[in-house]
Specification:
heterodimer; A: mainly beta; seven-stranded mixed sheet; four-stranded antiparallel sheet; 49% strand; globular; B: mainly beta; six-stranded mixed sheet; 11 strands; 0% helix
Chain lengths: 114, 111
Amino acid sequence: NAGVMQNPRHLVRRRGQEARLRCSPMKGHSHVYWYRQLPEEGLKFMVYLQKENIIDESGMPKERFSAEFPKEGPSILRIQQVVRGDSAAYFCASSPRQGLYEQYFGPGTRLTVT
Amino acid sequence: GENVEQHPSTLSVQEGDSAVIKCTYSDSASNYFPWYKQELGKRPQLIIDIRSNVGEKKDQRIAVTLNKTAKHFSLHITETQPEDSAVYFCARGFGNEKLTFGTGTRLTIIP
């Protein structure tokens, strides 16, 4: 049973470019969460999605950031017009279904903005 | 609010001794308390969790205790080994909602 998959593992973007981060949850998992981790810091919640629905986006910056989890395919976190402050590790986690709370993390995407 | 405080920020223990990390939370509605281990450059790995209807849970050398009245929970690692060296994060949640993480404890096991 494959774990949570994320790609790319490393992404370098110049200021002003767009970054697209992908997350495929574990098989059978319908809840997806995105977290951001700055160097030497903890994990900060960004957004919680179920298939075709954003459940909680209270941690998402109001501008430039968006997320989706379509009916088919991976969840995508999109950052437009990246700035140096966006450099971080972005982790995706998934959990099975309502009532099962465990969140399992993917390997992360390390975004570097130059 | 949903803040989580974690102490200590760094901890060094002799191999074979025990390590204890403590967290406090403020949201009374919290009902789920996981602990994650993160090695350098790796993903956070769920090592143990506890729900609010349980006071203690143990898995081999790892145990978690929860005091709902005082709103704190602790991770206990016994008979520590070098491979236990990592950063440990506590978190709190409510149901399937987001997790709020502590600031982490860097645990170093001294051989």
